Amino acid sequence: MHLAIIGTGYVGLVAAVCFAEAGNEVRCVDIDESKLERLRAGELTLYEPGLEHLFARNRREGRLQFTSDLEAAVRASEIIFLALPTPMGQGGEADLRYVLGACEQIGKHLDGKYLESSSPDALSPKIIATKSTVPVGTLDKVRQALSLHAAAPFEVVSNPEFLREGVAVDDFLRPERVIIGTDSPHAEARMRELYHPFLLSGNPFLVMDARSAELTKYAANAMLALRISFMNGIANLCNACGADVDNVRLGVGLDSRIGKRFLFAGIGYGGSCFGKDVEALIHTGEQFQAPQMLLEATQSINKAQKQVLMAPIVEEFGEDLAGRRFALWGLAFKPNTDDMRDAPSLTLIEELTRRGAQVVAYDPEAMAATRKIVGERIQYAERHYDALQGADALIIATEWNLFREPDFPLMKKKLKRPLIFDGRNVYALQTMRDEGFRYHSIGRPLIEG
Ligand code: NAD
User: Fold this and answer.
1) Which atom of ligand 1 is nearest to the CA of 35?
2) Which residue CA neighbors atom 20 of ligand 1 most closely?
3) Hey, whose CA ends up nearest to atom 12 of ligand 1?
4) Over the range 44-54, which residues count as b (16 or more CB within 10 Å of their CB) and which as e?
């Protein structure tokens, strides 16, 4: 099929590469010329495991094009995906200006004319699919915005995206489910055909009304965020009463009604989705007079949790951290991504530097993205061990595999004191005891060292 993907960020680029991998011709549209230039030159603009070789192969074989020419991309394509940002607006709502603005532009090119290179399929009505996470009722607005200028029939579908950064390629190629919200049998059939290669293992292709599809995406993210905040609340109670959250987690997670996943305590959720999507769902609840109190609590617990490591740090060093030096392992909001949006490490950097501390950070992939946000307010180490040299303590903010089995004796040599504040519970308590570290973690007893 001939596809256009409008917005070539984390979702758009992964979707484009994976659709191309299944043999489709994909035109990626973006307004960021420097991004397009890099992609045309064969350089990936984000880090995502497994993306590089698929990107290279499909680019080489001509199934991927990168352009700012919206008109040509729309004319040449049968299905046009919107993978545009939906950032948090001022009142917490999803800001739809990118999505609806693009729809107005797309509508101008929905006039029944096609490029010569288009497939015969393109003679049927074009389908505009929202992959961006958008609130209930947005598909109606999308239809309206397209209708302002469209001179030919078109169809709209909601197609929420569930990929997880860090495993996005795998998630896209083998989704646990694909959800389509539409009342058009034609659009449903074409989407079913497009996704067929990704669902060969029998995972479901769910068709529902657009409002339910839109809400499903928010409900899924909110449920995940809620599990994290719930366990963080329990972790704080463990801290206060001397229990170990890892034991509680194991015991709770073995109940098949609850399940083991997404129950890890830590320094809070971040990333481009959870915070803004939970906030947007709270806003939607207000709009429909169906308040989402659980989600308000979820967000406020998370806000506090991003600061939770500061208490033991202040306990060890006092409020004034001038002259102190901290090694910070991990910057990205989670492992296997370079995405720094809303990363808990940023809260730590803010708090530490505000109190006068020096921070020397290391992250395998996210240092360039961090530099764009905090610049030279912190130092960046070339290797994770270099960050430890002369530091008063190590803080862990992201659980990259690289940090899991380090050379503890070497760490002790480099640190001024064998002291770790672990925001991701990376090490076993017994290991810390055996290796002679003083070890603060989340919801687990202090190892005195
Ligand atoms: P992103 O910021 O990484 O990418 C958005 C891209 O759109 C950017 O490259 C930007 O330059 C481009 N853009 C902006 N305006 C444009 C326009 N008018 N025309 C063409 N391009 C334009 O965002 P993302 O993380 O890919 O998220 C996109 C959407 O998908 C959001 O609604 C998000 O909530 C949702 N989503 C994200 C994830 C994720 O893990 N990142 C997962 C599921 C859903």
Assistant:
1) 9
2) 30
3) 7
4) ebbbbebbeeb
Spatial separation of the C-alpha atoms in residues 339 and 335, rounded to whole Å: 9
Name the one residue in this structure whose structure tokens are 């991004």: 35
CA quadruple 418, 419, 423, 425: dihedral sign: positive
Q: Tens of pLDDT along 39-85?
A: 999 999 999 999 999 999 999 999 999 999 999 999 999 999 999 99
Between the CA of 8 and the centroid of ligand 1 the distance, in Å, is 7
91 touches 23 (CB < 8 A): no
| Side-chain half-sphere CA neighbours of 276 within 13 A | 20
Ligand 1 neighbours by CB, cut-off 6 Å:
6-12, 29-32, 35, 83-86, 98, 101-102, 132-133, 161, 163, 165, 272-273
> Ligand 1: which residue has its CA nearest to atom 34?
133
Mean pLDDT of 397-401: 98
Across the chain, mean pLDDT equals 96
3-state DSSP assignment of residue 283: helix
The residues, ordered by sequence, that sit 6+ positions from 167 with a Cβ below 8 Å of its Cβ are 49, 336
Condensed to tens digits (0 to 9), the pLDDT of residues 88-132 reads 999 999 999 999 999 999 999 998 877 655 555 556 899 999 999
Closest CA relative to residue 137, chosen from 66, 212, 28? 212
Which residues are the active-site residues?
273
Find out whether 138 and 156 touch, Cβ atoms under 8 Å: no
Whole-angstrom Cα distance, residue 357 to residue 319?
Answer: 10
Going from the Cα of 280 to the center of ligand 1, the distance in angstroms, rounded, reads 16
Question: In whole angstroms, what is the distance from residue 220 CA to residue 251 CA?
Answer: 24
